Amino acid sequence: MSDYSVLPVPPMSIRFDQAAGTLSPAGPELTRRMSDLEGLFLDQNAWRTAVADGDPIVYSVVSSLVPEADRELPQSITTIQPGSTGGEFWMTKGHQHPNHQGEIYLGISGRGGLLMFDGTDTRWVDMTPGTIGYIPPGWAHRSVNVGGKPYSFLAVYPGGAGHDYGWVLEYGLGQRVWRQDDGVAFGGYFAEASS
Ligand code: F6R
Ligand code: ZN
């Protein structure tokens, strides 16, 4: 065996069933409900109301068997449900990779966006099926569903990158993404909630 090979994951094919939203063979799955998103929506009262009012599933992530380990290249599919809280579109928590490394997202279905923030500058990439969004090392990232249907995308990232969620709570993600009529409006991250 080559010195470059690492166990325990063998070469494999991984099947994505779009209708079922599953990967097989399947790895870890997680579900994020509204109550898991504390401190992320600008309008905290609207967030509390949504938690009390059924605590809906906001997004789910299914992963393959490839582990989050150095030199591996894990993948996952995230599906964000359509919705808004206090006028802010439903979104992922967002994170920074502490071992700064790049990542790619591929839009699969629905209409979303990829929000990136490096502590100074903010970037937004419209994500539709077939769009590859590139996240350079050092850019925190969050996904947002700006459509009326579930938004799904594939993420591929270095297994040793790590995930830092505290960074986003402290520094934010540069901009808020608001529902406006039938469109999208951007606003300051730490601005006061409009009543
Ligand atoms: C992995 C990655 C995505 C997200 C997923 C959920 O590095 O960027 O797979 O982990 O979209 O978002 P978070 O992790 O921010 O809750
Ligand atoms: Zn990431």
How would you describe this structure in keywords?
195 residues; mainly beta; 6-stranded antiparallel sheet; 3-stranded antiparallel sheet; 2 helices; binds fructose -6-phosphate; binds zinc ion
Description:
By secondary structure, the protein is mainly beta. The chain is 8% helix and 38% strand. The protein contains 2 helices and 15 strands. Strands 3-4-5-13-8-11 form a 6-stranded antiparallel beta sheet, with no helix packed on it. A 3-stranded antiparallel beta sheet has the order 10-9-12, with no helix packed on it. It has a two-stranded antiparallel ribbon with strand order 1-2. It is globular. Fructose -6-phosphate is lined by residues 61, 76, 78, 92-95, 103, 141, 143, 155, 157, 163.
Topology overview:
Blueprint lengths: L14 E3 L4 E3 L4 E5 L10 H9 L4 E7 L11 E6 L3 E2 L2 E2 L13 E7 L2 E6 L4 E6 L4 E4 L4 E6 L5 E6 L9 H6 L3 E6 L2 E6 L7
Antiparallel strand pairs: 1-2, 3-4, 4-5, 5-13, 6-7, 8-11, 8-13, 9-10, 9-12, 14-15
The chain binds fructose -6-phosphate and zinc ion (ZN).
Zinc ion binds next to loops.
Looking across the biggest beta sheet, what order are the strands in?
A: 3-4-5-13-8-11
Compute the CA-based radius of gyration.
17 Å
Q: Uncertain segments of ≥5 residues (pLDDT<50)?
A: none
Order of helices and strands: EEEHEEEEEEEEEEHEE
Overall, the morphology is globular
Query: Roughly how much helix do the residues carry, as a percent range?
Result: under 10%
